[in-house]
Specification:
With 257 residues, the chain is α/β, with parallel strands linked by helices. The chain has a domain of 131 residues: Rossmann fold. Helix content is 37%, strand content 24%. It contains nine helices and ten strands. Helix 4 packs across helix 5. The radius of gyration is 18 Å and the shape is globular. It binds adenosine-5'-diphosphate and magnesium ion. Magnesium ion (MG) binds next to helix 1.
Length: 257
């Protein structure tokens, strides 16, 4: 299919993506389509390439081969295969919102200003409009009561919920989550997963790397399993968790449950 005839509905389209570090291939010919409104979870052991795959989607890592389109727009290189101008790249990258394991909020800004910073300075929104939207998003993640608080006064779960609101404030086509609960104390995991579940119910498009199996089963439309940089299984969650076709995945699930 040519680049100009990508289906309207694909929020993310990854074709034949490969990436090496120091001569070791950590992603091998990865193909993945994420439809608008779809939730895809990526599972796999540590070192299987999950973070690298997410980081290629928003060009934090540059793939060696293959193409990635966000809502029909190619990221990283122009149609002639040349590196995109920095400004164009920033614009395409802004169509993705990323939530990391470590929340990395701006410590010198209160919660509200963490959320309004990029919409004002990158999207050129007025302060009033950005704050109105930010307050609605903080409400959505259950953090409106902390709008004036500074990050260092928040729990890990609260920080992560603010980080989610901050990413949403850019109105991305797709939200990318890289183990959003792995740095949290166990008692704080649930509140963050609940927020992500709400987003899925609202129709947000999301690609989520997680080790939370029950969550993945509940929230996914598609589950993808990476093994040494290869997608070795992809299925709807019911099939994936009850009837995986590869021995490797069945072993993984036994260990994780
Ligand atoms: P996962 O997120 O599944 O644990 P990663 O995508 O982080 O896996 O890493 C996949 C492989 O690539 C690992 O072997 C890791 O050591 C290697 N790797 C990741 N990032 C880099 C990097 N910037 N430089 C060199 N090797 C890297
Ligand atoms: Mg990782």
């Amino acid at each position: 299919m040519s680049e100009t005839t990508l289906p309207e509905t694909a929020a993310v389209s990854i074709r034949q993506l490969s990436k090496s570090f120091d001569g070791v291939e950590v992603l091998r010919d990865v193909n993945l389509e994420v439809a608008k409104g779809e939730v895809v979870t990526i599972l796999g052991s540590s070192g299987s390439g999950k973070s690298t795959l997410l980081r290629c989607i928003n060009w934090l890592e540059q793939p060696d081969r293959g193409s990635i389109h966000i809502a029909g727009q190619r990221i990283g290189v122009d149609d002639a295969g040349r590196p995109m101008p920095v400004k164009t790249l920033a614009r395409v990258r802004a169509r993705t919102g990323m939530v990391f394991q470590s929340f990395n909020l701006w410590p010198h800004l209160n919660v509200l200003h963490n959320v309004t910073e990029a919409p004002i300075h990158v999207l050129g929104k007025s302060k009033r409009e950005a704050e109105e939207h930010a307050r609605a998003l903080l409400e959505k993640v259950g953090m409106s009561h902390k709008a004036d608080a500074y990050p260092n006064t928040l729990s890990g779960g609260q920080k992560q919920r603010v980080a989610i609101a901050r990413a949403l404030a850019m109105q991305p086509e797709v939200m990318l989550f890289d183990e959003p609960t792995s740095a949290l104390d166990p008692e704080l995991v649930g509140e963050v997963l609940a927020v992500i579940k709400d987003l899925s119910a609202e129709g947000y498009t999301m690609v989520i790397v997680t080790h939370e199996m029950a969550f993945a089963r509940a929230v996914s439309d598609q589950v993808v399993f990476l093994e040494k940089g290869l997608i070795i299984e992809r299925a709807d969650p019911e099939t994936f968790f009850t009837n995986a076709s590869t021995e490797r995945v069945r072993k993984f699930l036994e260990r994780e449950s």
